[in-house]
Amino acid sequence: MLDSLILVIGAVIILAILGLVALIYNGLIARRNRVQDAWAQIDVQLKRRYDLIPNLIETVKGYMKYERNVLTKITQLRSSIVSGSVQDKASANNMLSQSLKSLFAVAENYPDLKASQTYQNLQSELIDTEDKISFVRTSYNDYVLDYNNAIQQFPGNLFAGPMGLKRQDFFQVPEEEAANVKKPVKVDLTSDSGQDSTPQNPTPHKGQKKGK
Q1: Total number of domains constituting the chain
Q2: Cis bond leading into 202, ω under 30°?
C-alpha cells in the first residue's frame, strides 16, 4: 500500500515537472513567434516604402532641377532599409524619414509639383507608411522587451541556451541620430555652385505644357 502511494506521488511530481517544463517551453516559443511576427509587419512597411520611392523620385525630378543632392541621398538610403541587421535598418529608416521630410519641405516651393495629383498621392502613401512603421515599431519593441526578459530571467534562462534562443535587438537608433531626427527640418535652397536655387521657372514635368 505504501509502495503504491509512493509511486503515485512520484508520478504526480514527474507529471508536474513535465507540465512546468512544457509551460515554460511553450511560453518562450510564443514570445519568440510574437517578435518574429511583429518584425515581419515592420518589414512589409519598409518594403512598401522601398517600392514607392522610385515613383516619387520620377515624379519630382522634372520639377526639382536644383535638388539633386536631396534626390540622390534618398535613392542611396532606399536600398539600406531592406538589408542589414535590425539596427542597420532602423538607422537607415530614420535617416530616410528625415530626407523625405526635407524633400516634402522643398516641394512647398514648387506650386506646380504640389498641385500634381500623382505627387499628392505618393506623399499621402509615404506619410501613411511612416505612421504604420511607427505603430508597428512600438509593438515590436514591446514584444522584444518581453522576450528578452523571459530568456534572461529564471527559469527561462535555463532553457534559452539549449533552445537556441538569443537576445533580440530593438528597432531604434543611437541617441545622437534620434536627436537629429527630432530637430526641425532645415531646407537649403542653395545650389551646388553656390547660386540661389529658388525656382523662378521650374522645369515642367513630362507631359505638362509650358506657360506662355
Answers
A1: 1
A2: no
Q: Is residue 194 situated within a structural domain?
A: no
CATH number of residue 85's parent domain: 1.20.1440.20
Q: Is the pTM of this model over 0.85?
A: no
* pLDDT (tens digit per residue) in 81-109: 888 889 889 999 999 999 999 899 989 88
Q: Nine-digit cell at 120?
A: 499628392
Would you say residue 27 lies in a domain?
yes
pLDDT digits (tens, 9 = 90+) for 149-189: 999 999 999 999 999 999 999 998 655 444 444 444 343 43
Does 112 fall in a domain?
A: yes
Residues facing 190 on adjacent strands: 196
- Residue 147 in any domain: the answer is yes
The C-alpha atoms of residue 32 and residue 24 are separated, in whole angstroms, by 12
The residue written with cell numbers 534620434 in the block is: 178
DSSP output for 19-65:
HHHHHHHHHHHHHHHHHHHHHHHHHHHHHHHHHHHHHHHHHHTTT-T
Per the structure, the complete domain to which residue 122 belongs is given by 2-182
Please give the backbone phi and psi of residue 196, each rounded to the nearest 5 degrees, phi first: -65, 125
